[in-house]
Every structure is written in structure tokens, then in C-alpha cells.
Amino acid sequence: MFATGIENSIPTINNGRTRIDQMEKCGHYKHWRTDFELLKELDLQVLRYGPPLHTTFVGPGRYDWSFADLTLCELERLNVIPIIDLCHFGVPDWIGNFQNPDFPELFATYAEAFAERYPWVQLYTPINEMFICATFSAAYGWWNEQLSSDTAFITALKHLVKANVLAMERILKVRPDAIFVQSESSEYFHAENPSAIKPAEIMNARRFLSLDLNYGRRVDSEMYEFLMDNGMTRDEYHFFLTRSSLRHHCIMGNDYYVTNEHRVRADGSTTAAGDVFGYDEITRQYYDRYRLPVMHTETNLMEGPNGDEAVNWLWKQWANVLRVRNTGVPIVGFTWYSLTDQVDWDVALREENNRVTPVGLYDLDRNIRPVGRCYKQLIDDWCDVLPAQSVCLTVPVSRPQDYDEAPVRRHRERMRRMRKQETKEDSRHAEAKPSRPSVDEVA
Questions:
Q1: What's the CA angle centered on 33, arms 354 and 370, to 5 degrees?
Q2: Using one digit for the tens of pLDDT, what is the confidence trace for 67-109?
């Protein structure tokens, strides 16, 4: 699946007083019809997309679907396959931020209401980059709650992942053949010197926390203590272990940028390392841990003074995708993110400068960039070759207009029966949970 996305980040800064809405900054609210037409120009059939959560989810059990109805009905008409991104770095003002313990259940009700309104949608990213969201909001102090402590980080992380898990459960009640493309940042921390080995090891363990919890994988002993020491309860931890069957409905989305690798100093501080290992090596580390199908769900690079920087980065990322695939990892898609340029991502949305970040396939006047032309050519070159040579799984994705076709209905019914059995097994697991951590949990 070749894909792009409409950038829909909505974090707040200035202690919640300023909302950074990328759909507004990038002109999507005004130019959404044009943006969708550009997909056809590129021959792209998959789009990471989601309505703005802060204006759609207006209160408990209250929704304003007006913009979502316009845009999603058009995507359905165009027969574009959306990967619906329900929460991207921010929540509505009335929820507050990710420290709110009510967020998981509130978000799950929103996800279920969305699935009921748009039953033809099959692919979802309930919550985008949970690790990054918790880190930037509650460890670095940049967004939303703007806190900087381990306890705030764990609080945000457990709420984000619980919300994601509950949303998957609720969506599957409505669409039992739903597939979750969990877009998450793939990170690596390099020790700068021998004294930095220990802090780098801790960071390299911490990078897996969101996906460990999301997929019901037991964490190692050091991370278990980190979770417990910073506010996660035993019952909260076991909640995630009893939802492990959800992973059967998941594709692991790995996001990779030139900023995803870090040099670690002895004092634990970090600087950018550039692409030392690259997407290939780091993705194989994540795959070896979770053994799930993979999709490259985000990458980009700013077009610089030479005009070919993004083009060369696209080539490098695609070479890495082919390398991952050729080593036997079931990789099912690639994404250049996003369709258009973004705004203020040069400072990670920490400031409202209204400065264009030239990373799109198109600029904000909707003129194609060199990387857009190269991506179009890449799709044309490879779209017919990969299926014939694929060593990957076949992903059972149906097009929007096939929702009511008999084979799709039969597949949904099979998945409904399978999900009922999974739920029974999860219930038995929950009833058999130990009252205290087992040796395996902390080994």
C-alpha cells in the first residue's frame, strides 16, 4: 500500500491557551477537495486521515460530524482507502490533557461512535505515536499538560495506550474485520562513550513501552519497576496483559525520520545522531520483538537549498523498505508524510511562528514538489512488480465501495466469530491473573 497523509496534529501550547491545528495552518479546511484530487494525480489509493478531534468530539456523547461527513463521504465516493487517525497529539479543551484519567473511556466512546457512523471504514490508527505524544507532553514539557517528570510521562502513556486499546475493542464490535495500523515512532539511542552505555540501555528499553503495553507483552524487570515506581498500579498493568489478542488485528506502523536516532551522553542528555542504523535495522529490531506485519507509516525530509534533499531521502527510505522486505519481514506499505507542506514542525510545534516546513509532496499552494514527482514515478515503477514478487502477507483490505459485497460480508462474519472467541480467551486470562507479579513478568 503506497500512502500519504493529511497532517492533523492538534496539540496545545502556552498552558493550553494556544491550539496548533495543522489542518487549519496547512489550508486543508479550505482546500480539502483539491487535496483529495491530488491523490488521483499521484495514483495514491491509501490516505492517512482523520477529522479534527477537538472540533468533532464536543462533549460526552456529543459530536459535530459536519466536516467529517463532507470529507469522508467524498473519500468514499472516490473509493480511497483511509487509515483513520482519530487522535493526533491533542484532545478537546473540555477533556484537558493526557493526565485526565477519564480520557481512555471518553475516547473509546468516540471511536465507537465514529465506527458506527462510517461503517465502511476498515483501517484505523486510533491514537498516533503514543510514545512521542507522552514524551513531548509529559516528559519534555512541550505540549498539552507541559509537564516534565517520570510520573507525568507514565500517567500520560498509560492513559494513551489504554485509550488506544479500548478504542480497538469498541471499533471491532462495529467492524469485526477492522485492521489497526499502529503508527509509532521507531527510535534508537547510541551511547557516545562507555559511561553513556547504561543511560542508553534504559532509553532503548523505554522506547518499547507503548507498544509493549498495546500488544500485551510483558515488560522487562527494569521497566516494570519504572512503571510501578511512577504511578502504574498492578491492576492497570494486568489490564494490558489481558488484551493481547488484539494484536491479531494489528499492523505495526514504524515511523522513521532523520531525527529518530540519538547520541546519548553520560549524563543522559541526548543530541541528534542522524540516520546511523537507518529504517532497515531499527525496524528489524521492532519486528523481532513483536513479530507483526509492518508498514512504514511516516517519513519526510525538508527540501533544502539544493532542491533534491527530499528526493534523495525518499530514495533512501524506499531502499530500506526493500531491504526489510527482502530479509523476510512482512512489510505491507510505505508512506510519505504528508501530502502538503506543514507549518512550524521545524520547532516541533512548540512555538506558533507560522513558518512553512517544506516536507510535502506539494507546497501549500498545491504545486507539486520534486519529491512529489519522484514519488509518483516510484509508485508507477513498483506498483505492478511488488505483488508478483511479494514475500509478504496478503492484507485483507476492502475498498470503501466494496463494503456490501458478499465476499466482504462473509469475511466480516468470520472475523466476528473469531473476535468472540478471542474475547472469551481474554476473559479467562483476566480471571486467572496472578495477585502479584510472576517471575516471568519481572525476569
A1: 60
A2: 999 999 999 999 999 999 999 999 999 999 999 999 999 999 9
Q: Which of 32, 49, 58, 182 is nearest to 118 (CA)?
A: 49
What's the number of CA atoms in the CB half-sphere (13 Å) around residue 105? 4
Provide the β-strand partners of residue 334: 2, 296
Q: Does domain 2-431 fall into CATH 3.30.450.20? A: no
* pLDDT value at 335 more than 90: yes
- What count of Cα atoms within 13 Å lies in the side-chain half-sphere of residue 242? 19
pLDDT of residue 195: 98
The span from the CA of 112 to the CA of 65, in Å, is 14
Does 9 sit behind a cis peptide bond, omega within 30 degrees of 0 on the bond before it?
Answer: no
* Per-residue pLDDT reduced to its tens digit, 210-224: 999 999 999 999 999
